[in-house]
Design brief:
By secondary structure, the protein is α+β, with helices and mostly antiparallel strands. The protein has four domains: about 50 residues, no CATH class; about 110 residues, Sandwich (Jelly Rolls); about 375 residues, no CATH class; about 90 residues, Immunoglobulin-like (Sandwich). Helices cover about 45% and strands about 15% of the residues. Strands 1, 2, 5, 8 and 10 form a five-stranded antiparallel beta sheet that branches. Strands 3, 4, 6, 7 and 9 form a five-stranded antiparallel beta sheet that branches. A hairpin with a 2-residue loop joins strand 19 and strand 20. The longest helix has 28 residues. It is globular. The two termini are about 30 Å apart.
Length: about 750
């Protein structure tokens, strides 16, 4: 609460001193590992004469070691001798080696990097005749080197701690001044609402709060690779990022053409600041959990103008079964983000059709959020909105101006998101060889066994997750089944709000029914839609949000006549123990993994929807720096080569017995936007056409037997125009918004 009387100066000094001392101690503890470096691998490899040959076994990927003193720890067991563990740089130069014997285990082996930083990779040179080895862990540490990532990470964490300390001093000692800067929180009820949101976020994110474990969802590796690819691409100077580095040995993966990355720039920047990949992934999930719960609160409060209703919406949203399964089981980062924007779409439609159509930006920004996060959720939202408009056709005929806010919303969302959808359509039209185009054409058959859940799941209190049979594991949860029961409790109430809640309840019930196998999805009229959204049970997310809003309205009406505090406690306990608790307990006990065994792999492309059709998903048989000749590699000699970001440069010579035009195939996945030039021996520069060849970038030598080829990815005119359109739309919207505010604001 806001203090009615000013604090005494002495009290203020004491409180300030205590907070500053605690802050200083915290900063000291947190920054004590500023110069500490740790690189750890858990390869869990077993070498025996029967299972291994005498080749060099590369372990993990290259890691950059700056000049300084390091210590190597090996957790292994060995019998016999003759095998060697060594560290090599990019050129294959060995600068540390160790004979592996039965005594080589958990002993500290010091070594030093001198001169400049080196890219280092561990290697086992196995002797097939005299030894067996089990290698569990490799750990390289140093307490005497300063990495840029470590510096950025500590600066960021320290800045957050300092800001929290300053806020505490202002909140406790100078509340009046703080409320002048933050008038929205001058009301204690707003503070309590914020604490409720934070508390529910922390409860629903309990499995993410442990620093030593991670929760592996089905699509988790795909999405964290997107984050890694974004970070590597931004580091290389690409923005906005569409064709990402890092994937598939830096062949470049055009995931950004079809999967919106806007919100992923946040964890990508944290990654560039030195935070661990798993840590930024967790931070992102926690952030969008908070935003999803806050969005439900905001929609519930705006629709009902009642804080009790808004609080109920947050409880339903926080403990929603499908939202939790998206985070912990499915690893569905797109739908996790979409949960934050469906409430805005519902709020926007309510404002446009029932209250104040001038507040149409809610609807627009709800759709824009989906455009920024998940195109499949966008398709679902468009279809559901179209069905809603059909139910309102009589009202629209009477007042056609109702369509104006919808048109404004569509224009605003499409204009701001032009930088994404214009290049996406360009890629679709100019690069038909992508696998995603086969999916959109309906060439991928519907897996009826895994696209919708059984009707009996409607009444399940909990279903153990089965990755192989996802649909069998999906269920709405009893907290949402409570919503129609709440309607019975206010049966005689007939207000505009109750009617709106009834509409949401009916609409959501129909959507839930469409998630089940009882709905005839195999009919030709429905197949195109369900093929494009992949799983019919995706409809459970918007249905859950609609039930959250309807439930909060019913609860608010019920709480007017009863003890709302007691009812609120009962609601929290019921929703938590009936729905959230089983999911969180299952996740903690059976779905969390020691983060030390996490190994990042660049060839995890999930379903490979955005690869060229027919190309192998893993590409394990491909060298990252090999140029092939369509006419036969025996006619080709590569005298030099270099990968340069999303590009490749090489010098070549065609053997004299091969004349005429030949075609190179480069180690780059083909997407529209690659440009190249060919420099002949006499300095003549030619511009060959870039074409796809079995999914890779291909070009002709233009009858030049010896020369140098340079290929790189560049923005197309459509991409540049789309970015200009986005900036223009944002500028025009801000100009109109500020102009309207100046007109309606009171004169000085």
């Amino acid at each position: 609460m806001i203090l009615k009387t000013p604090m005494k100066k002495k009290t203020i000094l004491w409180i300030t001193a205590i907070i500053l001392i605690i802050t200083g101690i915290t900063l000291t503890v947190i920054n004590r590992d500023l110069f500490r470096f740790t690189y750890e691998l858990w390869p869990d490899l077993f070498f025996t004469p029967e299972t291994a040959d005498g080749n060099d076994y590369k372990i993990g990927s290259f890691v950059v070691l700056k000049p300084g003193k390091y210590t190597l720890f090996l957790d292994l067991s060995a019998a016999g001798s003759g095998s060697i563990f060594c560290l090599t740089d990019r050129d294959g130069t060995e600068f540390f080696s160790l004979d592996i014997t039965e005594h080589t285990n958990n002993t500290a082996y010091p070594f030093e990097i001198s001169g400049t930083a080196k890219q280092v990779q561990p290697i086992i040179r196995y002797d097939t005749e005299n030894s067996t080895i089990r290698l569990n862990r490799i750990r390289i540490t140093s307490d005497h080197v300063l990495y840029r990532e470590s510096l950025f990470r500590h600066i960021t964490i320290s800045a957050v701690i300092v800001l929290i300390a300053l806020w505490l001093i202002a909140r406790i000692c100078y509340p009046g001044k703080l409320w002048k800067l933050m008038p929205a929180f001058s009301n204690p009820k707003n503070e309590r609402a914020l604490l409720l949101l934070i508390g529910l976020t922390l409860i629903s994110c309990i499995p993410l709060l442990s620093p030593d474990t991670y929760t592996r969802g089905e699509d988790m590796f795909f999405h964290i690779t997107r984050i890694k690819g974004l970070a590597e691409s931004m580091k290389a100077g690409y923005f906005p990022v569409r064709n990402q580095l890092y994937w598939i040995q830096n062949y470049g993966y055009g995931v950004g053409f079809y999967y919106p990355d806007v919100f992923l720039y946040f964890p990508a920047v944290l990654l560039l600041l030195g935070f661990e990949l798993l840590t930024v992934y967790k931070i992102f999930l926690i952030t969008f959990t908070f935003l999803s719960i806050a969005s439900a609160w905001f929609a519930g409060y705006r629709i009902t103008n009642d804080r009790t209703s808004a609080a109920a919406a947050t409880v339903f949203s926080a403990f929603c079964s499908y939202r939790l399964s998206n985070i912990y089981y499915r690893g569905a980062l797109g739908e996790t983000q979409a949960a934050a924007f469906y409430p805005l779409i519902i709020l926007g439609l309510y404002e446009i059709f029932y209250r104040d159509r001038g507040k149409w930006p809610y609807f627009a920004f709800g759709f824009l959020g989906l455009l920024f996060s998940h195109t499949i959720s966008l398709v679902i939202a468009v279809v559901l909105t179209a069905l809603f408009l059909i139910t309102q056709v009589r009202k629209i005929f009477k007042d056609p101006s109702l369509l104006i806010p919808l048109i404004k919303s569509a224009v605003l969302a499409a204009g701001i998101d032009a930088f994404f959808w214009m290049p996406m359509f360009e890629q679709t039209l100019t690069n038909p060889g992508l696998r995603i185009n086969k999916i959109l054409d309906g060439a991928v058959p519907l897996n009826r066994a895994n696209y919708a859940f059984p009707v009996k799941n409607l009444f399940s209190i909990f279903k153990t997750w089965d990755f192989a049979r996802q649909a069998e594991s999906i269920y709405p949860g009893w907290s949402l089944l409570l919503v129609p029961v709440l309607r019975i409790g206010v049966w005689k109430k007939q207000s505009r709000l109750i009617k709106a809640a009834d509409f949401l309840l009916i609409f959501a019930s129909a959507a839930v029914f469409m998630c089940t196998r009882a709905f005839p999805w195999d009919l030709p009229i429905f197949l195109p839609f369900v093929t494009r959204i992949q799983f019919a049970y995706r409809l459970l997310l918007p249905a859950s949000i609609m039930l959250c809003i309807a439930g909060c309205i019913y609860f608010s009406e019920l709480a007017r006549r009863k003890n709302k505090n007691l009812l609120g406690i009962v609601l929290v306990l019921f929703c938590f123990f009936s729905t959230a608790f089983p999911v969180l307990l299952e996740t903690i006990n059976h779905r969390t993994i020691d983060k030390r065994v996490f190994i990042m792999q660049d060839n995890r492309v999930s379903g490979g929807e955005y690869l060229p059709y027919g190309l192998s998903f893993d590409n394990n048989d491909r060298s990252p720096d090999t140029v092939h000749l369509a006419e036969g590699d025996e006619y080709l000699t590569i005298t030099s080569h270099k990968r340069n970001k999303l590009g490749f440069n090489f010098s070549y010579e065609i053997t004299p017995d091969m004349t005429g035009e030949v075609h190179f195939s480069l180690p780059l996945l083909y997407y529209t936007g690659y440009r190249g030039k060919l420099t002949a021996e006499d300095g003549t520069i030619l511009i060959p056409e870039i074409t796809p060849n079995q999914g890779l970038v291909s070009l002709s030598n233009m009858d030049i037997p010896r020369g140098t080829v340079s290929v790189s990815y560049q923005k197309t005119p459509v991409q540049r125009a789309s970015e200009i359109l986005t900036l223009l739309t944002i500028g025009i919207f801000l100009f109109i918004y500020r102009k309207k505010r100046s007109i309606h604001s009171p004169s000085a």
